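Morning. Coffee machine broken again, so started the prediction first thing and wrote up yesterday's gels while waiting. Chain of 160 residues, entered below exactly as on the submission form.
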Amino acid sequence: MFQKEAYTGTLEENYELVLAQLKALIAGESDLIANLSNASALLNVFLEEINWVGFYLVKNNQLVLGPFQGLPACIRIPFDKGVCGYVATTKQTALVQNVHEFVDHIACDSATNSEIVVPIIKDNELMGVLDIDSPLLNRFSKTDQHYLEKFVQILVESLI
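Came back before lunch.
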């Protein structure tokens, strides 16, 4: 059973706790949708000042909405559009402090001002992306990036 923890340590300590919680949540479970659903819920509980967190999965050379927490979202994102498409194309994390300055940004939620997107890659193949939006400018840091990349790697390792 999951219990919400009090995240009262440093940012790094709190992320380490979240990584341990993720490992416990997905232990012994290989179903992608189940694990991504719990992962998005965990991040939604942990991360402050966000308005959307979820996954887009690769299907037919585009990103298709997967498990998420937040307002209803764009269902399909072409690889040549938005921050998610950029990450799908480059296979590199994008840390965008002001989405209004990002060419081709897709405004699924007009309240979003910053965004971080992490690619999900297994055996050099893009499987999807983790997308997190915030209503604040400059919400995400390099520390967030570091730990969210670790978070995604734990998910990748759970996939068969």
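Residues 32 and 159 are 7 Å apart (CA to CA). Going to sketch it on the whiteboard this afternoon.
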